[in-house]
């Protein structure tokens, strides 16, 4: 893809011991969002804010929902005019699930054989700690042009309320590019799939099973609809083909609610099909929703069943060019620090970066410590060497981007 011109890396004094300590301290905070139990990101966010204050920064704390604060610090380079780069992480983690599936304490942050274990170690408290220490090291290395915004958002694993709130705020206006520190195992992810969550309601009329002629059966319409969704998926895949890093678009029915009367001799009045749509660049979301609406109406027509589509969530696919300065800076930094060229990849789901691009027009790239596939699994871990290497790459990439040195 891009030709890179690695220069000799500058030395950024990453405090490796403190980086490991901060990652472990963050993992020990169970920042699963469980409103029923009063659990939020607040304690993890406070730890991020304390770290920023220790660095002499002034974190701005904004509650985007009760007990759910975004933490953002602006680090001025003191080296004259220059661009604004954002580092983006999130403080929430998904649940540990059944703890008996773990061989370690999910929130023990055990350090063993060069790995830190625990929920969120990879996704993404490791990345969060790495970006904080990277920006601190950049600052300690001397003045630089422009500024860095260090952002720790809430609710990435949910509705991305933190990113949405920030993208709508004045603080997002001057950001020229963002590096999202999700675990991607050394890949520079220049694209992320879009997602649409749909609920399709099929509304018929209840009747006695012995007299189906008096009813309008939505279950028969569901059968037709599933067939036509599958055909439409094939059509989209033929039309748009396989994206170089994201693969194919999919329409996957995931939930079926039908037969609420739950009696074999009752024709139910309604049924709903939930569809998880994953798109690639080029697919027009409005067109897609219009087509699914027509398919739902056509599926119900023979029985007189009405079809309605509700969009529950809509996140566009995003992609940056490999020639985008932030991508070039990151690729050069990776090669300079690691000693081999970076691989390019795509993110199968959306990230906070999707929201920053959609709502604030910020070009984003995703790169961070930890395995892509270990996120959300039992015995999640991050390699300490990976953590330290990523912090070095972040500092180096920021330096190149802000100086406009990226070739
Ligand atoms: Zn994440």
Automatic annotation (TrEMBL):
Its cofactor is Co(2+); Zn(2+). Gene3D superfamilies: 3.30.70.360, Zn peptidases. GO terms for molecular function: metal ion binding; succinyl-diaminopimelate desuccinylase activity. One of its GO terms (biological process) is lysine biosynthetic process via diaminopimelate. SUPFAM superfamilies: Bacterial exopeptidase dimerisation domain, Zn-dependent exopeptidases. PROSITE patterns: ARGE_DAPE_CPG2_1, ARGE_DAPE_CPG2_2. Residues 191-298 form the Peptidase M20 dimerisation domain. Pathway: Amino-acid biosynthesis; L-lysine biosynthesis via DAP pathway; LL-2,6-diaminopimelate from (S)-tetrahydrodipicolinate (succinylase route): step 3/3. It is an enzyme of class 3 (hydrolase). The keyword Metal-binding applies. Keywords: Cobalt, Hydrolase, Metal-binding, Zinc. Its EC number is 3.5.1.18. It catalyses: N-succinyl-(2S,6S)-2,6-diaminopimelate + H2O = (2S,6S)-2,6-diaminopimelate + succinate. Belongs to the peptidase M20A family. This is Probable succinyl-diaminopimelate desuccinylase. It comes from Thermasporomyces composti.
């Amino acid at each position: 893809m891009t030709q890179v011109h690695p220069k000799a890396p500058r030395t950024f004094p990453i405090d490796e011991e403190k980086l490991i300590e901060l990652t472990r301290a963050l993992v020990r905070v169970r920042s699963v969002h469980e409103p029923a139990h009063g659990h939020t990101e607040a304690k993890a966010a406070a730890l991020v804010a304390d770290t920023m204050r220790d660095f002499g920064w002034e974190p701005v704390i904004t509650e985007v929902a009760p007990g759910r604060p975004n933490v953002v610090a602006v680090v001025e380079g003191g080296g004259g005019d220059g661009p604004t780069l954002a580092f983006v992480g999130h403080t929430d983690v998904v649940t540990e699930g059944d703890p008996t599936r773990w061989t370690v304490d999910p929130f023990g942050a055990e350090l063993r054989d060069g790995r830190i274990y625990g929920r969120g170690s990879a996704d993404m408290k490791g990345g969060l700690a790495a970006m904080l220490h990277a920006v601190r090291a950049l600052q300690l290395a001397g003045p630089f042009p422009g500024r860095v915004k260090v952002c720790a958002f809430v609710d990435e694993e949910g509705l991305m309320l933190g990113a949405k709130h920030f993208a709508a705020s004045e603080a997002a206006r001057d950001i020229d590019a963002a590096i999202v520190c999700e675990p991607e195992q050394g890949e520079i992810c220049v694209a992320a799939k879009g997602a649409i969550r749909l609920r399709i309601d099929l509304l018929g009329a209840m009747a006695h099973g012995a007299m189906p002629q008096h009813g309008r059966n939505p279950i028969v319409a569901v059968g037709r609809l599933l067939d036509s969704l599958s055909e439409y998926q094939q059509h989209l895949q033929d039309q748009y083909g396989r994206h170089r890093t994201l693969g194919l678009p999919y329409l996957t029915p995931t939930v079926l609610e039908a037969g609420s009367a739950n009696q074999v001799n009752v024709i139910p009045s309604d049924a709903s099909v939930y569809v998880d749509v994953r798109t690639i660049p080029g697919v027009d979301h409005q067109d897609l929703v219009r087509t699914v609406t027509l398919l739902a109406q056509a599926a119900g027509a023979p029985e007189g069943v009405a079809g309605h589509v509700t969009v529950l969530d809509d996140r566009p696919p995003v992609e940056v060019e490999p020639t985008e300065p932030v991508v070039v800076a990151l690729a050069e930094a990776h090669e300079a620090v690691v000693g081999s060229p970076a691989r390019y990849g795509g993110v199968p789901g959306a990230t906070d970066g999707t929201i920053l691009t959609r709502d604030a027009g910020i070009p984003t790239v995703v790169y961070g410590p930890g395995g892509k596939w270990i996120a959300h699994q039992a015995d999640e871990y991050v390699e300490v060497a990976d953590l330290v290497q990523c912090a070095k790459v972040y500092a180096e990439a920021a330096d190149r981007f802000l100086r406009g040195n990226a070739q």
